[in-house]
Amino acid sequence: MAIRHVIFRVLFSVIALGGFFGCKESILTEEIVLNNDFSIAAVDDSIPIMASDLYNRLKDSKLLREGGFLDSSTYFETLEDIVVDTLVSLEARDIDLAVAGPNQYRTYRNRYRGVYIDYLFKKIIIDSILVDFARVDSFYRAHPDQFVRLEQIRARHIVTSAEGLRHGFDSTGFADYSQEQLDSVAKVMITDYRAQIDSGVDFGDIAEQYSMHRPSGQNRGDLGYFARNTYSRDFEDVTFGLDTGVVHGPFKTADGWHLVEVLDHLDSGLVPLEGKVYEAVVNRLTSEEARERSIAFLDSIYSAAEYVYNDSDLTRPIGEVPETTWALIINGRDSLFFRRLDINFADYGKFLKKDTLNLDDKHDMLQRLARPYIVAQAGDDLGLDRDSAISAERRALYHQYSANVVRQYDVDPDYQPTDSMIADYYNRHIDQFVFEKPVYVQHIIAEDSIFGEFLRDQALSGVEFLDLAKEHYPGAEEIRVAAADLGYIGRGEMPEAFFEKAMSTKLGDISHPVKTDWGYHIIKVLDKRLNKTLESQRVHISAILKDRYLSGALKQWRTDILSRYKVEYFLDQLKKIELSPSKERNKSDETTDKRAG
Predict the structure, then answer these.
(1) Which of 48, 218, 304, 317 is the least crowded, having the fewest Cβ atoms under 10 Å away?
(2) Is 217 exposed, middle or buried (0-12, 13-18, 19+ CB in 10 A)?
(3) DSSP type of residue 244
(4) DSSP letter for each residue of 494-561
(5) Which CA distances in Å does 334 have to 303, 322, 382?
(6) What is the pLDDT of residues 56-87, one digit of tens each?
(7) Residue 221: is it exposed, middle or buried by C-beta count within 10 angstroms (0-12/13-18/19+)?
């Protein structure tokens, strides 16, 4: 069949030095691939692997999302993947799927039948539906309830509120304010924003910077289009009565103080029959007519179907019947077998709320299972199975599932790593499970516990912990932050009381002051790494070892299939590959499609 060896002409060292046999290094770009493709590998001296195959595989990958250059080791690995895919495709041509992979064959048959039924419904039903403007307009006017638009407005707003002040970034400055005082401040602020807008400052700029309703503030105050009952009633009672293009306010609602500008107002009523609305009407018209025609078509072929039942076996306990025994013959052309019928009958019994199915129930269930076969037979009778499009799809699916058979390799489905293997892995990776330094902390030393509590309250209110350390940690200012951030610590690095307090403090929390010889510490816990016992990690380690077992089996399969062919790599032709950022790669595909068109 094929020469059983692989020839590697690997010139990575030459590539790394910047040239091919002394030639100046060049760069492989998409433009070169499109205009001057060339072979970079060959299978059995006759089947080429082109540079475009490699470039397109790399372009579609997740490599170099921001763009850049790929080194030779990266694209050689990808190139070998392409070679293996080519070899799989070659061997798949010789597969008798029904014999070599009966499970894959059944899956292929079911998949193809589904594709075929979709195809024939399009040909028989959808393509026969004629849609013109007169029919669309008639359907549109006959179903006004489906195309009514509620009254809507589009508005932008700016909000200030007592709650916004109480919980904002500078909330510490308002800690002692009453609700009435906060509301008064909010009113002063919104009044000032109105004055700025009246003097020419852009509404959106102020909304983006100052509005306390951040979702709209980040969109320059724009709320988009909305109907009634989207926001609070008192807000909508004002906004739905405003003229467009006029800034209104300040006015107060339960949510705070507002400035609003209505940008557009759409009255309720039928939406115009154009654009996406026209497309929606066409889709609904087509769907309704397709449904009616489909029901009529299916009723006709189901009622004409002929069934032959294997009643002698259908009346036996299903567990006693071999799964290869036929249960139903459909129109003398297709058969259903007992394989998986126990599951189908059990599910149907649940549907009927019966513990036991009688023979008529079983007949009815089998007729339901037969429906896809009947539809496919109707398509065959019309000659649709010979259409070039569905024939190509059938061949492609058959080849796909044949390739799945080629890709199967021997593994023990019940493989389990031994206890000694799991223990060995645990001991060799002990640093992943047992931590000498389990907790990451920052701390500030205060002279007394009262000041320590004050610093803790400041930190909990939102002041950055290291900002407090920079201001209050003892010692020279230039070393305070570094001294406050201890990183991960273990027992013995700090006084025992300090370490115990750090370990007992919740992740992300800040401790109450704890006394040591150095003073009173408040401790912020940024991370904890708890020790993990062998027993607690047994399932996790077992999964890792199973993955290694499967990876080893896959590697051996790749070695075996490569050994059955002569594969030659022309790596002296492999140039450094430049990839554009991933978001631009899709654009280049669109450009290529337009050229092809």
Answers:
(1) 317
(2) buried
(3) B
(4) S-HHHHHHHHHSPTT-BPPPEEETTEEEEEEEEEE-----TTTTHHHHHHHHHHHHHHHHHHHHHHHH
(5) 17, 19, 17
(6) 898 888 888 888 888 777 888 899 999 999 99
(7) buried
What is the arithmetic mean of pLDDT over 522-531? Answer: 93
Over range 534-550, report the average pLDDT: 96
Q: How far apart are CA 99 and CA 456, in angstroms?
A: 74
Map tokens 């297709």 to a residue.
Answer: 334
φ/ψ of 576, rounded to 5, equals -55, 135
330 contacts: CB under 8 Å, gap ≥ 6: 305, 306, 307, 336, 370, 373, 374, 377
Could you tell me the pTM of the whole model?
Answer: 0.61
- For residue 416, give the nearest of 505, 235, 319, 545 by alpha carbon: 545
Q: Is the pLDDT of residue 503 over 70?
A: yes
Span of 132-136, 174-178, 370-374, 485-489 with lowest mean pLDDT: 174-178
Q: Which residue has the tokens 């567990």?
A: 319
| Average pLDDT of the segment spanning 108-117 | 95
Question: Residues 6 or more apart from 512 whose CB is under 8 A from it?
Answer: 452, 453, 456, 522
Is 119 in contact with 377 (CB distance < 8 Å)?
A: no
Structure tokens at 491: 């027992």
Q: Quote the pLDDT of residue 264.
A: 93
CA-based nearest residue to 455, from 507, 503, 501, 511: 511
Give the strand pairing for 576-579 and 27-28: parallel
Question: Over the Cα atoms of the chain, what is R_g?
Answer: 37
- The residue ranking higher by pLDDT, 104 or 174, is 104
446-478 per-position pLDDT tens digit: 999 999 999 999 999 999 999 999 999 999 989
Nearest in space to 60 (alpha carbons), one of 593, 594, 580: 580
Give the domains, in start order, of the chain with CATH numbers.
Answer: 6-92+566-596 (no CATH), 116-145+280-408 (no CATH), 151-267 (3.10.50.40), 435-528 (3.10.50.40)
CA torsion, ordered 382, 385, 387, 392, to nearest 10 deg = 170
Report which residue type is found at 439: V
How far, in Å, CA of 427 to CA of 404, rounded? 39
How far is it, in rounded angstroms, from Cα 308 to Cα 171?
Answer: 81
CA-to-CA separations, 420 to 172, 534, 544, 547, in angstroms, rounded = 59, 11, 14, 17
CA distances, 497 to each of 442, 492, 527 (Å): 15, 10, 19
Name the residue among 220, 228, 267, 268 with its Cα closest to residue 244: 267
Query: Average pLDDT of the chain?
Result: 89
Listed residue (199, 206, 241) closest to 220, CA to CA? 206
Helix (H) or strand (E) holding 69: strand 68-70
Q: Are 416 and 465 in contact (CB under 8 A)?
A: no
Q: Are strands 256-266 and 152-160 parallel, antiparallel or unpaired?
A: antiparallel
